[in-house]
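User: Okay, second chain of the day. Same drill as before: sequence in, structure tokens out.
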Amino acid sequence: MNVATYFSRCISVNYRCDGEDDCGDGSDEFHCGKIRTWRIFFPSSAERTIFFLSHHLSDKTNSTCKDDEFQCRRGKACIPYEKVCDKVSDCSDGSDEPLHCGVDECRKVEDNGCGHRCVDTKESFRCECRDGYKLMADGKACADVDECVEVPGACSQQCVNTEGSYNCKCNQEYYSREADGRGCKRKDGQEAWLLFTNKYYIRNMTVSAARMSLVHQDLKNVVSMDFHYGRQEIYFADVSARVIYRSKVGESARTPVVSDHANGLEGVSIDWVNDKLYWLDRNTQHMYVSELDGTNRKTIMVDIEDPRAIAVHPGNGFVFFTSWNLHAFIGRVGMNGDPETFVRIHSTVKGHEVAWPNALTIDFFTDRIWWADAHLDYIAYADFNGNNVHKVVGQARAPHVFALSVFDDYLYWTDWNLKAILKANKFTGKTRADDHEVENPTPIFFPNF
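Assistant: Same drill. Structure tokens below.
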């Protein structure tokens, strides 16, 4: 196949955009732009990505030229962009003075093919899209940006994508939408409290750390906790005592609810809707469920190698849990343990970056899970299918996360190496200077609504 030049000379199509002026006028190297990415901010304050087709910077990714410079085709020299199309050849090959200098390709849509907007440049043009859209692979057509997927934290809670935009919604029972249209503010206005343990005691602390009280002491090795909001009860597993206890908030007494065949206790989680207790045992490699008092115990899943964390979602009938075996994974299964409902939503078998998923929590208002990997040193989130994964905290602040919880717009976690309880925005990982040091910290938890 041949292509025609401005001089009506035919050359092989294989010579098109090969970096060589085979036509003598540079026309075979015209319109060879590549897609570049630019980040811009819109009035919604949500960061979106828009793609431009840029011809005079088409080789920018392979050069050292600055943004305001033009790269000559031969020799790859850089010249100021202001010298392009000034009727003086500054490039040895004359590529800065093509025959189409001054041609306005944007005058006619048929000349540029841009779906939304055409921006004329000295030697060419570029296509741009309106707010809320991005250029497709051809560099001309525009497609809607799904901010709910592509923009982390576009909304504090629920996000609804629309053509060219999106809408944010808040849980109407507990939250009201803030003035920016994106954030959600709790209606009660009360400061939240945080439950945590360092193995030997359980304490209650405001998130500002202004107030703290002792809940339980003289424990052996508490490795997990959960909370029943309606009953105001704390459930916690002491792996050395081989017991799962429960206690009323404000009372020092604690009652064993599971003590038989509990030699390898790991994560515990409460179904506060149906009043059930779920837990994992690394010795038996089982997942169990029982009444809140430990009766009617039932094994609902077996052969879970090295199970660790567990979180129940009674609203959609799923249990999320982790395994840090050689083939580590984050799993999801029906609350009755039906094998047909089991799926590894994030796993090494699928090629995902996971090794020691030590901590797991659910944000019931965004329909996402957050987890922490204590070997790869990160905190990330994904949807309930394990898709749209975003890492929010890296190594410096997560060298060995043990437990994790989410409340409002923030993550709270304990780290063995840092010996601290830490806090960060759940979408961005941005922090404030209000971390509080705790000796040998382990689980933390916020009551579910």
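Residues 1-8, 33-61 have pLDDT under 50 and may be disordered.

User: Thanks, on to the next one.
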